[in-house]
Amino acid sequence: LKKAYATGNAIMSSPDATLATDTINFDRNSQEAYYNSLGTIINRDNTLKSKSGKYYVAEKKFQFLTAVTITNPTYVIKTNHLDYYSNSGHSYLLGPSTITSKANYIYTEKGFYDTKKNLAHFLNKSYIRYDDRFFKTDMSGKCDSIHSSSKNALTKLIGNPILWNGENQITGDIMHLIGNNQTRELDSLKVLNNTFLVSKDTLGTGFNQVKGQNLFGKFEEGNLHDVDIIKNTEVIYYMRNDDKELIGINKNVSSKINIIFDKKTIETITFFQQVDGDIYPDKDLPENARKKGKK
Q: What whole-number distance in Å separates Cα of residue 89 and Cα of residue 68?
């Protein structure tokens, strides 16, 4: 007998998991078990549902296709293609997929997760959205790949990363978001190489812009509060008085800049070392002199 099957509320059990579906097929030649009807696998804290699945005995590889959902106390994964290798504990998401947790929402089109080391890498059109109910923040980002370690509370955004915090847009080559596992809040941000920060002037049509090599920021109650931008810094900043009237446009260069944010807008800017620049009346600074980078 080369093929066998069980039908009618079929159940297949192992020491680690139980599969329940309408029909289970087993091919003795290829050593593959598979189902093509809605199946549910329960493994410790995980519940996996899919419309079809295969188990390759020799490789100890599970492949789940079509309407795949994994639910556990920490997160929910939805995809149409999931490969899982039980020996290594490695999981692969192929095609459009989402991972939703109390802390964030991640979209990716190619993902990897090491279930033993609790490490994740997300590639291809990935973006992340932090849940303000959990991390008390209004922040989102996108990039080519996301590398995340829940043990270290570290999320790396790599490949054309863009981060939004309130009305502020930040870009750079690489970004590190560091959380605090005890307080469940974002702690700090690092942007490495080609830092560019831009936000719209609160009342006018211009844009406040800061350019430099690296950025080091601290969060306060989920929002960027204290930010240092270092090396070859350049600034265009629309200065207003207490009556919100435009005083002038501050354009200068320096070695380091410190920015204090209040309610997601720039409160103060302080310049350090080798400061060179001026404050220009609005009418005296042409449009082409008001741009430092892409917006």
A: 18
In this structure, are strands 246-262 and 276-280 parallel, antiparallel, or unpaired? antiparallel
* Distance (Å) of CA 241 to CA 94, 167, 245: 53, 21, 6
Q: What percent of the chain has pLDDT over 70?
A: 95
Q: What angle do CA 213, 226, 154 make, to 5 degrees?
A: 70
Q: Is 265 helix (H, G, I), strand (E, B) or coil?
A: strand
Interval 227-271: pLDDT, tens? 999 998 998 888 888 888 888 888 889 999 999 988 777 888 888
Q: Tell me how crowded residue 120 is: count the other CB atoms within 10 A of its CB.
A: 21
Mean per-residue pLDDT over the chain, rounded: 84
Task: Kindly tell me the number of DSSP H helices and DSSP E strands found in the chain.
Answer: 1, 22
